[in-house]
Every structure is written in C-alpha cells, then in structure tokens.
Design goal:
The complex is a heterotrimer. Chain A is mainly alpha-helical. Helices cover about 70% and strands about 0% of the residues of chain A. Chain A contains 15 helices and no strands. Chain A is globular. Chain B is α/β, with parallel strands linked by helices. Chain B contains 18 helices and 13 strands. In chain B, strands 1, 2, 3, 6, 11, 12 and 13 form a seven-stranded mixed sheet that branches. A four-stranded mixed sheet of chain B has the order 8-9-7-10, with helices on both faces. Chain B starts with a helix and ends with a helix. Chain C has two domains: about 50 residues, no CATH class; about 240 residues, MetI-like fold (Orthogonal Bundle), CATH 1.10.3720. In chain C, helix 3 packs antiparallel against helix 10 and helix 4 runs antiparallel to helix 7. Chain C has 13 helices and no strands. The interface between A and B is medium-sized, with 32 and 37 residues.
Chain lengths: ~375, ~425, ~325
Amino acid sequence: MARSAPHLPYRRPGFWRRLRRGNLSDAQLGVLLLLPALLTLAAVMLYPMVSVVWQSLHFNRLNQPFRGTPFIGVQNFRHMLGGEGLIWSPSKLLWLRLLGMASLAPLLWAARRRRLGPVWAAFLAAAVLVVFAGLLGLHPAEGGRWGDARFWNSFSITLLIIVVSVAGSFLVGLPLALLANVPSRLRWLGRVSLLLPWAMPRVFAGLTFAWLFQGQYGVVNDVLARLGIHGPLWLARVAPAIAAVNITIVWKTSSFVGLILLAGLQSIDESLYEAAVVDGASAWQRFWRITLPLLRPSIAVALIFRTLTAIQTFDIPFAMTRGGPGRSLETLGAYIYNSTLALNIGYAGALSVVLFVLSLTITVFYLRWIYTE
Amino acid sequence: MRRPLNILVTLAFAVLLASAGAQVNLKVFIGGQQRPDVIGPLLEQFNAQNPGIHATFEVGGATSDVQQQYLSTVLTSKSSAIDVMLIDVIRPAQYAASGWAEPLDGYFASKDAEKTYLASFLSGPVSADTVDGKLYAIPAFTDAQFLYYRKDLLDKYGFQPPKTWEELKNQALTIMKGENNPNLQGFNYQGAAIEGTNCTLLEPLWSAGGNWRDANGNITIDTPAGKQVMDWYDETLSSGITIQDIASVATDDSRKMFQAGNVVFMLNWGYAWAHFQGNGPDKTNVKGNVGVAPLPAFAGHQSATCVGGWQWAMNPYSANKQDAFKLMRFLSSVDTERTLAVQASNIPARKALYKDPAVLKAAPQYEQFYDVIVNARPRPVTPLYPDVSDLIRTTMNAFFARSMTGAQALQKMQTGLEDILSQ
Amino acid sequence: MTSAAPVPARRPRRPRRGFGYLAARLGLLLMIVNGLFPAVWLLLTSLKREDELTHIPITYLPDHATVLNYLEVFRQNPFARFLLNSAVVSVVATLVCVLFAALAGYALARLQLRGRRAILTAIVMTSMFPALVMLVPLYRLFVGVQVPGLSGLFGYLHAMGWGFMPQAVTTPNLLNTYWALIIPYVALSLPITTLILTSFFQLIPEDLEAAATVDGATRVGALFRVVAPLSAPGMVTAGIIAFVNSWNEFLLALTFNTAMNMRTVPVGITLYQGQFAFPWAVISAAITIGIVPLVLLILFFQQRIISGLTAGGVKG
C-alpha cells in the first residue's frame, strides 16, 4: 500500500492572481477596462438624465408655483406633437398621417430586406420627415395648428440645418482633410487653418460672422459691392438669414469633420497606395477604392457627432440673430433655451426628451453601420 | 470605514465651533457690467459701519439673460449662497411668483415708514417692483429710453426737438435731403429680437393713448392705437428715414451708428450718453452735439418711455435676512446712490438726487434726463413676462424683417397674448 | 519594405508637377484663407481702435495699430488667472478622458463582449441631452446632494441612537474648485473620444496583437506596446477634441466657478461686455489670447507626435 500524494483537482487561479498575470477572460477584462468610463458617466450623467425625463412627465412652471408640479404623464408630448387644439379637419389630418406612414413603409421594408443601404434609407427617411415637417410647421399663419406650432417650426428649421450643415460640413471637410495631408512646406499652416474654425468658441464665431454679415459695415456686403453685386440684407430678412447661419455653421463644423477625417487619413497605410500605383490605378481610383472605404469608420464617427451637434444647434443661430427674423431661426435647442428662460421647465424637459429620441434613433442607425464590418 | 467617519465628525464639530461666534457673511450678486470696482468700496464702507457683518460680492455674466440663467439655477436649488442680488427691472414679477424674492413689506418699521421711504424714489421703478401690492425689490438705479438727437443739425435747420412723431419724420426728411449724405439715417431704433424691442412697440403705443392691456385685463394691442403704431413704423421704412435692415439692429448697433455721426434721431438707453461724450473706448464724432428729449407722441397724447434699471432683491433662502435687509437699505440709501450716480454713471432712482449738486456736477445731463424719466412706465408687470416679451419682440422683429404686415403682427400679438395670459 | 522608385514618404497625391499638383496647392491656399480669415479679422480688429470698427467704408488694416486692447484685457480682469484655470482644467480633463476612453475603446473594439453596441450606444447617449436642461440637476449634484440609499441608511442609524453617525451622506460641495469642472468635462468628452478610439482600435489588424502575444507579451502589455502607437492619430485627435471641448465650454464654467479667481477663459471673455455695449476691439484681443495657447498646443501635438509615432510604426 504505497502512499501517493493526494490528487488535488486543478483549480483555476483566482481573479486577482489572473489579473496580475494579465490573463483574464474577455468578459472580466472588458468589465475592468470599461469601468472607469462607465462609472464616470454614471456618476455625473445618470442623475441629470433621469431628472430631465422625470421632469418632462410633470407640469412645472416655476413662475406659477401655485399650480404645483402635478404628474401629467405624456400630456406635454401630446401638446407638442398633436392631438390638442386641432383646427385642421380630422379627415385632412388622417390623410396626412396615412400618407406619412405609407411613405415610410417602403423604406422600412427595403432597409429590412437590405435592398437599401442604411445610408440611403436614412437619407430618404430624413427627406420624408422634412417634407412632413414642412407641411406641418411652415404653414403661413398659425391659425392652423397640429400640436404646438412653435415646436413644429423649430423642428423644421432644425431639420433644415441638420441636412444642410451635415452635408455641407462633409462636402467641405473631406477636401480640407485631403488637402491638409498633402506634403508641402505650408502643411503646418494648413493644419492650423483646419483647426482654427473649430477651436474658436461657438458664440464668438457666431458673433464674428454676424459682424461680417452686417448690412451696414459688414465685410461680405463690402466685398460683394466691390464685385458689383448688391448684397442682400443678410440678417434682416428670413431667407438670407437662414443662408448666412448655415454658411457659418458649415464653416465652423467642416473643420471638426476635417480633423477627424484627417486622423483617419493618417492611419491609412501608404503601402496600399504604393501597391495600387504599381498596379496602375489612377488617382481617382485610388481615392474611390482605397481612401474612401478605409475612411469609413472615421466618416461614421464624424457623421454621428456632427449629426448629434446639428440636432442641438443653438449657439450660432442665437448669437447671430437671436432666433432670426421672427422665429424663423428658432431651432429646437433655442426653443428649449427659451422655454427654460420662460421658466416652463416641464415643457423644456419634454422638448429635450424629443431631441434625445431623435438623436438616439439616428445614432442607433449609424452605429449599426460601424459594427457591421 | 472608521476613519472617514471620524473625519466627518471632527469636521462637523469644527464647523459648529466656528459658527458659534462668527460674523455674519453676506454675499451680493451683481452682473459683470455693474461696476464691481464701485460696488466693492461701498461694501467695504458697509462692513466698517457694521462690525459683525462681512459683505462680499460675486460677479456674474454681463447680460441680463446670462445672469438670469445663473440666478434661476441657484434659486431653484434653494441655495443660500447668495443673500442680495441685483436684478433687472423686468424680473421682480417673475421672481415674486416663483418665490425667488423675499417680500420686503415686513422688514420696514411700519406701513407709513415704508410709504415715505418709497415716495423718495421715482414711481416707475417702484411700480415695477411692486407685485400684487407687495414690495419685492428696492430700486438701485434706473434707466429709460430717450430721444437722442443731433443738436447741431437741428440748430442748423432751425428745428426744436419734435413733439410728435409726424414732426420727427418731417424734420428727419428735411435734414437728410439738406445734408445730402448717403450714410445719414433719419431715425434709428432697435428692431432685432432683443428685450429692448418690446419698448420699440410699447413707447409709441403708450404715446398713442393705448396700452398692451386695459384696466379690465383685456389685451388691447390689435386696436386703433396699435394700428397707428404699425402704420408709423411702416412710414419710417417707406419714407427712407430708417434703414432697411433695421431688423438686425440691436442696442449697441444703434449707439455705434449715432456715435459715428450717421444718425439724426435715435431711441436708446441712458448708457449711450457717456459714450457720445467720449467717456468710452470708442472715438466719438458727436461730442457736444447731442441733445436729449422726451420721446415724441402722437398728436393729442402724452409722451411716454420705458423704464429700465436694476433693483436689489433678497434671496428668500438666505440665512441672514435681517442683516441682508440692512445691507439693502444701505445700498439704496441716498449716499450710496449718489456714489453710484457720480462714479458709475448710473441714473439715480431717487428723486432728490436730480437736484443734488455733486450729481449734477458729475453728470449735468441728468437734469435733462429727469423730464424724460419721470414719465417712464414699466413693461408688462406679470409673472408670465418672459412669454409676453418673447412674443412681442419676435413678432416686431418679423414685422421689421417684412415677413409680416402690420395688421398680421397686431393680430398675432393680440391672440398670442390672450393665449399666454389665459393660462 | 523597399520600393523600386524613390516614392515620397506619405501620400497618394505624389507631387508630380502637373495639374494635380497645382490644384492641390491652390486648394491648400484656399483652405488656409478659409480657416484663417476670421482669425486674421479678429487679430486685425484687436489692433484697431474701437471707433474704426463702424467706419463706413470699412477699413481692413488698422489706421493706427495699437496694442492698447491687449493691455486692456489684462487690466480689466485677471485674464492670466483665467488662462491658468482653463489650462489646468482642460489638461487634466483631457488626460483622464483619453485614458478612460482608450481603455473603454479597446474593450469595445477587441474583446468579445455581449452587448458591445448597447454599451457604446449607452455611452453616446449621455451626450444627447442639451447641457442646459441638465444644468440644475448638475448644479445640485455639485453643491451637495444626498446620496440615496446610503444617506437614508445613515439617517436611520443616526435616529436609532447611533449618535456618532452623520445624519446624512451628501456629496461634497465642489463649487469653485477645479474638480467642479474637471469631472463634468471628462463626462462630456467621453462619448466622442470613446467612439473615436473604438473605431481606431478596430482599424488595427488583429494579427499584430496576436504576434505580440506569441512573442510573450500579455494582453495588457500588447495593448500598450503595439496598439497604442498605431492608434496615435486617433489618440491625438481624441485628445485634441477633448481639450478644445473643455477649453471652450461655457455653461458649466459660468455656473459652477463663480469666484473671480476660478473663472475660465470663455466666461472671462464675456466679462468684457457691457450690458449693451460690445467692445469688439478688446474682446477680439481677449479671444485671440484665448485661442493662441490652443493652437500652439495642437500644432505641437499634430506635428511632433503623429509623425514621430507613425514613422516608427510597425508595417507589414
């Protein structure tokens, strides 16, 4: 009867030992790495976000405390989006709703069947929304109302700014990024000029451009006059004001987009280009086949944040025209600001929730795009 | 686990001991543009006169809206960080309704004492500070919109300051034609969507014998008086005495244009005078050639102007209300207001100071100002003022931008105000 | 990696002196004008006297150049202190933010985690509310709010007779400290920096890490030695974005740090305004002073660090 060492079953080393050895499972390492970021965000943002959503479900006018802050559920949203104060006939309204759903349906179907890429689907959906917002929000007198006319007005101008400024910032930003990568002795100056527009505080960019677009002593009209063109009254008429604001926003944000795209460009391995040149690819082919696809993640990142900031646009239109001639440039962000200043914070919360839902929808869409690679 | 507790407890003891025999700390909130360099020494003076109280000040943003945002954040959080604050003349009603200003009636010795005290102030600011019969703030200094005019140009053509709007238009047209200067504007005012544009509507409306609301609480904007106002503004634009992009002109834009010598008549606030006389960073082309007059009126009616200025209010969550009130009385006392008038060019809210030799020596124009200020009326005193102001100024802005006719603007304001006030 | 012909170090647009070359140079010139003209305008304005600004016809170059405005900037307010405050807050916030974002980005890009997309969405979600509506809750948070649960527990224990227990547990009052701004700024910049770094980490081929692990490095070691240098453009960009966001942030800086010696640059710049009067000359000078450190810093990082790191990067 020989005594042998007792057989101990293999026991996996504990968590801390494995941590020291750098040998954790994916999930455990993941949690550890994500913890600082998630903790910070939760500590700072969770309470405010919940607070805002909670606020949106109540009636809360600070200057009418005698009315209390009763829980009103989705009343704020109903007031905003429709169902109250209908002056349009119910049948006309029904037709509009059916039309809206009908036009979105094929889009959804196509996107599900992957006939339509997510970008196209998003674009067309946005187009449909713009048309609708136009029908609902920009009608001439506020006699016809579906929900809060001021909300629909701010929604439509916000959509306009989103479409124009996002497209514009990419159309301008991509060439800027490409140019900033061209080897040249002035490249450092190019990179500085890429960065400067975005580095300037938004409010002051707005005020500077308001100054530049001034009718009396503004640079733009002066330059136009020297070219023999009689410039419009930029900030004193609706259409020129909208144009001036969009120009300013595109100017400022194209540098943000350019910055991100530049980083993407710098990550592209040159050997790919060298190989392509050897294979006889032209410059355009190199751009289309190598640069753009490899830029896709940067484009996605820039697109997401560009859109998120476009949805919240407030500083620049406000600094330039304080809401534009009348309310034509009162964006969603400006409406929230005005509601807060008017001490109607329940409604401001509701508007923020709508803004949030809009942003979330778009982001989910975009993120799908990044992670499908 | 034990150590943090110990530290907490020790700290708690320390705080208790510290506050046992400590002085009272008062914090005064003023905006960046309220001359902290003048307020500082005044507070030092107060501290010297009142041992046991230590008052300091906190400087906020430079504009009324930025300060409002900050104060509303602090007051919504029921913080007692601030004791006394300087608020815009349009705010007392909102603050009273939101419970952000302490009613001050109880702090006076008696009702009569309060009445005599308030009688020494101009009536415009006091009526802005009185909401539902209760006093919520004490005037610090006041302001109003004046009709600035080019004395030299009017003298050249032998004109006296106009008494009616029609007269103003004719004088402006004559001068513009005579001077033959393409950059000369006849009549300049504010048309941008700023707070001051409320006055652009209200002043002519009052001078037409109308008001935004009548004694029974009905909105009276879409009335013949209102129509008169809109027609008048249409005339200013069609006759050419006002520039076409008036919708983008804000207060300081007006001031700059006049200061460059390009305007004959202008409606603007009191701060502009000092700039015109060269007491500002800009060069002035109009020094010594500026006159100030009450606003014109429509024939057969009285001139009126908007009251401006700032008021001292008390935080209802303050921990030292009695001392805060003492501080407020000091800050609105005759001596303090005299100092503010002389050193900070603030137009006094006290009637007596308009005859005070020291004040008149430093600012002789106040004598002229008095005739205008005595007729200054407050903008709508209602807790819903932010909505009211927002509606009026955006509608007027749209009207000046020619997106709306005068009739449409009147109708929009009428229905909009009815909606707002029916809530 | 050798190449047959001498190919210049970087770009697909080789500087052949043809149309492409000229077009690129012209484009570069236009871009420089586009980016710089408002800055140059601001600079010129800051050198003018105030009255020249409303001169008709407008003057471009100052008639009498003066540095008076710059002196005014420092005379009227402790602007140097504002610069210091902004610098401290921005630098710390950037470093912390990029670190956290890099860790999170790596986890989301490389590790097989369930709900990756959901976590990323959740992170980005925090930037979807306008800062304005979150101002009051954030203010309450930093003034000192009772921690739910914990505070209730302590209160209960206190009432039960454990007198030495504090009655409530509140978050500390952080107003008018650097932390009042650093912590929110980290949270505000985390979404975008995490997103950038996630996508950049995804770009790096997996085999590089595998090779490093085979060579004996641990997972975490691979992260630092192989992945980080290759993601340099992303890291630097994320840092730049976090820095500029923190430097230019206005609302929280206005509300939280109200003492004059704790103000930051954007808020400080608005202090030069009057209620109506907007002295463009002095404010242009202040903005110029506020932007210069930003630009210098970023220039430095863009040039040195990227070229330094990617030049020595692993290839093939």
